Amino acid sequence: MKHLYLIRHGKATHKPMPDIKRYLTGKGIKRTKKYAGILAEQNIKPDLIISSPATRALQTAEIIAEILNYPVDKIEINPVFYFEPEQEVLEQIKNIPDRYNHVFLIGHNPIWTDLADRFSEKPVWHLRTSGISGTAFETETWKNILQSPRKDYILIN
After folding, report:
1. What's the angle, vertex CA 148, arms to CA 144 and CA 149, rounded to 5?
2. Which of 131-152 are b and which e, b meaning 16 or more Cβ less than 10 Å from the residue's Cβ?
3. Are 130 and 6 spatial neighbours (Cβ–Cβ below 8 Å)?
4. Rg of the chain in Å (alpha carbons)
5. Is the pLDDT of residue 125 over 90?
6. Are strands 150-156 and 132-137 parallel, antiparallel or unpaired?
7. What is the average pLDDT across 70-94?
8. Is the pLDDT of residue 124 over 90?
9. How far is CA 12 from CA 20, 75, 82, 114, in A?
10. In the CATH scheme, what is the homologous superfamily, with its name and number, of domain 2-132+140-148?
11. Looking at residue 29, what DSSP letter applies?
């Protein structure tokens, strides 16, 4: 069984700066901590966290890692998660090493909502900032998740 958690970065500043450098606002930090706390209460922990290289995504990943006792220095960065086409993101997911069963991916809309809708049994419509959509796939390999039976595991939105 593979569990995939699509996590949208927290609310970020709109101050003029390069998009990749935009950082979390106080509200973004607070909501991310709250949602990570819900994961902790339900004993949901990652085997692997992969983040977009954008500052706001990395900050979100670090907050989640700290609350769930995941080593911050083990967060992987994948540039494909920064606004690359959905098909490219899917290829990255299918290439996750099979030794990982609970994977957290931190990225951006619109792709994260599109993927959450694609994987979910029920429409997600819009994954808000800090939102988490978790799906369980009945497979032993990430390569087969698109063809595998699935079940909605958690939605914090």
Report:
1. 165
2. bbbbbbbebeebeebeebebee
3. no
4. 14
5. no
6. antiparallel
7. 96
8. no
9. 11, 20, 15, 20
10. Phosphoglycerate mutase-like (3.40.50.1240)
11. H
Here the tokens at position 97 are 């090493």
Q: What would the mean pLDDT of 5-13 be, rounded to a whole number?
A: 98
Domain coordinates in residue numbering, the chain: 2-132+140-148
Distance of CA 113 to the CA centre of its chain: 11
- CB of 120 closer than 8 Å to CB of 152: yes
For 58-80, the pLDDT digits (tens) are 999 999 999 999 999 999 999 99
DSSP character string of 88-150: HHHHHHHTS-TT--EEEEEE-TTHHHHHHHHH-SS------TT-EEEEEES-S-GGGTTTS-E
The residue count of the chain comes to 157
Query: What is the pTM assigned to this prediction?
Result: 0.96
Sign, Cα dihedral of 6, 129, 127, 41: positive
Helix axes 55-67, 26-41, angle to 10 degrees: 40
